[in-house]
């Protein structure tokens, strides 16, 4: 422990210094408050022994400034004084004093008090370090959730483009939704909707939404039949998901005229065709097993076809609706659901969910609640043009020094700036991933020189992030440079991220070496970018990202 003795009497300083050094304490000495504050700014002090009456700056003023400027970790202040009146003692406590030692000094009492406050100081230091580590892990988790949520929102955002046809509600039981509602329009104008419910809820359930949505939108854009879409989604999920996971789903196609429907029904509760008053005109029961269970050659492709008109609505819901329970453990059930649909003319999803919530009467939501009211009206033609790409070249450059690297995470702000350029907003998700992975690689493995192999050890992740935090706190004379160039002639984005680190440990340029030296996330870059290259030193990455013409 490092003790700072502050007293204007050299004899007192010498006496305390000798007594404390005999107990193996490190001791620094100051003759007034100004000197004491200077030492505290330059050295790590654990306990302050502070005289009250001193020239230039007395103990009262000094104690107040110490508590103000060194408050991250508890720093004990023990006043050394010959004053024994009550008002002086009260003032010492008011300005931040933690204890007293009266002159002349008693070695036994001094030693006991130093030991007692040493324990408090050590505990405070340990707590502070743990809090910093917890804060870092919390921020990392929040960042990961932010990335995942950003990707999900961009992948599943089409529902809001067809408000005349679709009124929907999705409310997850946890942060991430295990239900998904996908909507897309084919080149010939038909409107497709897929409501899916993955096993369980939360992030584990939500991960299946990404491959399913990719297949759905790709095949809708090609104008494929509902049966083909269902078969392909089933094949992908059967290959990717573990055996205990699957996706109950209903997939429908409404013709562009709004007069006919084709539906594939696999595992969700009954769907209903209702009129404007909510009367059930037809019940559509599930005919197939959920997606992701059967092999391709076992899959059943049969559809249901029926005619509709503009007065009709299709109702799709996941089992979270009918399986909602109240305080008496009663289910909301199918009958209440049907009654709710008929409770008012042109009932909305908000009306239905309000009834479900009222029935639960404050009971905790156990499952994701998802509902789609699909109006069978003609679909407006596709918009003929999207936001055009800017015809002006655009350059962006950012240089971060050590202080800025410690205090900021620039990726989101950079993405916000870049996506203001005409046409680039549609590529926000890819741009975010490219910059995020490349910047984190430059920081962790370039500037900080961390080795990902640490994570392979037992408790390796904890050791890795503790080392990262400690190394980042000591960082000096470091730079990370981010350059971006937009070329309208080739519809390309060029990114360069350079760091002041030592680069690759070896000159092996294979993909395996890149993954080993720069982290597993770099494989994502090669999947998204047209080209990824590194300089000879290994401390600079260049990426070329091609902007594909938007669908028209």
UniProtKB/TrEMBL annotation:
Q: Name the InterPro entries on file.
A: Bact_Sigma-Reg (IPR052016), CheY-like_superfamily (IPR011006), HATPase_C_sf (IPR036890), HATPase_dom (IPR003594), PPM-type-like_dom_sf (IPR036457), PPM-type_phosphatase-like_dom (IPR001932), Sig_transdc_resp-reg_receiver (IPR001789)
Ranges where the Response regulatory domain occurs? 2-118
Alphabetic keyword roster? Hydrolase, Phosphoprotein
Q: Which residues carry this modification: 4-aspartylphosphate?
A: 51
The domain of life for this entry's organism is Bacteria
**What SUPFAM superfamilies does the annotation carry?**
CheY-like, PP2C-like
Q: What is this protein called?
A: Fused response regulator/phosphatase
């Amino acid at each position: 422990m490092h003790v700072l003795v502050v007293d204007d009497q050299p004899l007192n300083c010498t006496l305390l210094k000798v007594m404390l050094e005999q107990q193996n304490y490190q001791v620094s000495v100051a003759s007034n408050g100004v000197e004491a504050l200077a030492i505290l700014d330059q050295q790590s002090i654990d306990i302050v022994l502070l005289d009250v009456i001193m020239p230039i700056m007395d103990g009262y003023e000094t104690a107040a400034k110490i508590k103000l400027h060194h408050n991250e970790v508890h720093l004990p202040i023990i006043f050394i004084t010959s004053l024994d009146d009550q008002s002086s003692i009260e003032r010492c406590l008011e300005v931040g004093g933690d204890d007293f030692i009266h002159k002349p000094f008693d070695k036994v009492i001094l030693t006991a008090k130093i030991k007692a406050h040493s324990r408090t100081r050590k505990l405070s230091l340990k707590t502070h370090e743990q809090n910093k580590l917890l804060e870092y892990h919390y921020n990392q988790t929040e960042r990961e959730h932010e990335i995942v949520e950003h990707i999900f929102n961009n992948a599943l955002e089409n529902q809001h483009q067809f408000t005349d046809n679709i009124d929907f509600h999705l409310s997850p039981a946890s942060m991430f939704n295990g239900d998904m509602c996908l909507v897309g329009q084919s080149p010939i104008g038909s409107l497709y909707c897929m409501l899916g419910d993955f096993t369980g809820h939360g992030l584990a359930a939500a991960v299946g939404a990404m491959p399913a949505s990719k297949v759905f939108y790709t095949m809708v854009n090609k104008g494929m039949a509902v049966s083909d879409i269902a078969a392909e989604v089933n094949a992908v999920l059967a290959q990717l998901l573990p055996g205990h996971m699957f996706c109950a789903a209903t997939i429908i196609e409404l013709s562009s005229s709004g007069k006919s429907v084709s539906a594939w029904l696999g595992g969700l509760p009954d769907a209903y065709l209702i009129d404007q008053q909510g009367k059930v005109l037809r019940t559509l029961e599930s005919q197939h097993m959920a997606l992701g269970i059967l092999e391709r050659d076992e899959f059943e492709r049969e559809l249901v076809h029926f005619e509709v008109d503009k007065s009709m609505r299709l109702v799709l819901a996941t089992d979270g609706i009918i399986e909602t329970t109240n305080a008496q453990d009663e289910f909301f059930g199918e009958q209440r659901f049907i009654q709710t649909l008929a409770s008012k003319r042109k009932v909305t999803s908000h009306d239905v969910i309000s009834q479900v919530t009222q029935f639960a009467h404050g009971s905790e939501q156990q499952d994701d609640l998802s509902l789609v009211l699909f109006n069978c009206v003609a679909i407006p033609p596709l918009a003929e043009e999207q936001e055009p790409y800017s015809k002006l070249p655009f350059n962006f450059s950012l240089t971060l020094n050590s202080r800025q690297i410690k205090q900021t995470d620039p990726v989101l702000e950079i993405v916000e700036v870049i996506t203001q350029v005409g046409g680039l907003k549609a590529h926000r998700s890819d741009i975010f991933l490219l910059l995020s992975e490349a910047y984190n690689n430059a920081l962790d493995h370039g500037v900080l020189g961390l080795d990902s192999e640490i994570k392979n050890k037992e408790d390796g992740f904890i050791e890795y992030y503790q080392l990262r935090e400690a190394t980042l706190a000591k960082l000096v004379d470091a730079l990370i440079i981010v350059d971006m160039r937009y070329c309208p002639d080739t519809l390309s984005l060029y990114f360069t991220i350079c760091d002041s680190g030592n680069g690759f440990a070896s000159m092996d340029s294979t993909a395996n070496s890149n993954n080993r030296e720069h982290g597993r996330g770099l494989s994502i870059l090669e999947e998204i970018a047209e080209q990824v290259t590194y300089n000879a030193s290994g401390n600079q990455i260049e990426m070329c990202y091609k902007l594909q013409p938007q669908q028209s």
